[in-house]
Amino acid sequence: MAERLFDEKTLRKLDSLMLMAQKIRAGAIKGERRSSRRGTSIEFADYRNYVRGDDLRRIDWNIYARLERPFIKLLEDEEDLAVYLLLDGSASMDWPRAGSRDRHKFLYARRVLAGLAYIALGSGDRVSVQVLRPDGPDRWGPLRGRGQTLSLLKWLENNYTRGPVDLNAALRDFALRTPRAGLVVLLSDLMAPDGFEEGLRALQSRGHEVAMIQVLSPDEVTPEINGDLRLIDVETGAPQEVTIDPAMHALYMQRFEAWQSDIAAYCLRRGVHFVAVETSMPWEQLLLSELRRLGVVH
Q1: Beta strands across the sheet bearing 273-278
Q2: Which domains does the chain have, with CATH numbers?
Q3: DSSP-assigned beta bridge partners for residue 30
Q4: Nearest 5°: CA angle at 263, between 259 and 268?
């Protein structure tokens, strides 16, 4: 799993990144992060070990000369961020079931999640991961430190999709069980019959800053099927007889675009960071470009 997710070139790019929240929540420990608050002290507070990617200008060279080990100076206004990564484990994420595995939604979402976790762990943030499934979430963490990366990758490799997931109920339950506010990143195709809006409101009511990444397969965005078909719902098994002709295809595209516009407009009103991505986009491009544009990654 580790070799398939990352190569050294990508790792070097991720090493320089940090997850951001517009309003950094007070951390339980001193970390690498510079608070966005103004008026707080910037005096020396403590040291921590140097890790690859740190600014060399912050090394205390006097300490290095005495101990022959590099240490980074921490300032009083630096604090960690609680990062919560939530992955939709519903059966609709198990798509496509044939063809290129690189375009498989659940695999793609796990790669993005692993990249985000790698960034956050390297920044000294407190990282928690949950895969949302109908039988209850599967949890990893909370843990800190890039040394936890291999543990996370092994855990992700063993995860799976199953059945329908009520996103509203899952997000409400998460919000109620999480004592500390932080940055919540949800990766999902958002194909939930009852929607997700109530769940997002529950997260925000607990003080979380929310980012949502919608993961879609290219054939869901632009279907290439036609003729008389019997479609099977992958989550419920319910069949549906349809005839796909140019008029039906145009209607699908119209409704799909309206659905996407409604999601984007809702997130904009609520102050939720939102990006929709097709799995044909390289996952590292999503991290290095799109999430930077949203201000989630810096």
Answers
A1: 138-143, 126-132, 82-88, 183-188, 209-216, 273-278
A2: 2-14+80-219+271-293 (3.40.50.410), 28-75 (no CATH)
A3: none
A4: 145
Query: Longest Cα pair distance anywhere in the chain, in angstroms?
Result: 77
- Residue closest to 205 by CA, chosen among 147, 270, 145: 270
Query: Per-residue DSSP letters for the chain?
Result: -HHHH--HHHHHHHHT--B--SSPPPPSS--SPBP--SS---SEEEEEE--TT--GGGB-HHHHHHHSS-EEEEETTB---EEEEEEE-SGGGS--SSS-GGG-HHHHHHHHHHHHHHHHHHTT-EEEEEEE-TT--EEEEEE-SGGGHHHHHHHHHT----S---HHHHHHHHHHH--S--EEEEEE----TT-SHHHHHHHHHTT-EEEEEEEE-HHHHS----EEEEEE-TTT--EEEEEE-HHHHHHHHHHHHHHHHHHHHHHHHHT-EEEEEETTS-HHHIIIIIHHHHTSB-
Residues 222-236 pLDDT 10s: 887 776 666 666 666
Q: pTM here? A: 0.80
Q: Would you give the end-to-end CA distance of the chain in angstroms?
A: 26
Beta-carbon contacts of 182 under 8 Å, excluding residues fewer than 6 positions away, are 21, 25, 81, 82, 83, 84, 126, 208, 209
Position 181 pLDDT exceeds 60: yes
Closest CA to 170 of 105, 234, 84, 106: 84
- Dihedral in degrees, nearest 10, Cα atoms 177, 180, 186, 192: 30
Q: Encode pLDDT of 1-10 as tens digits.
A: 444 556 667 7
> Taking Cα atoms as reference points, which of 75, 77, 9 lies closest to residue 48?
75
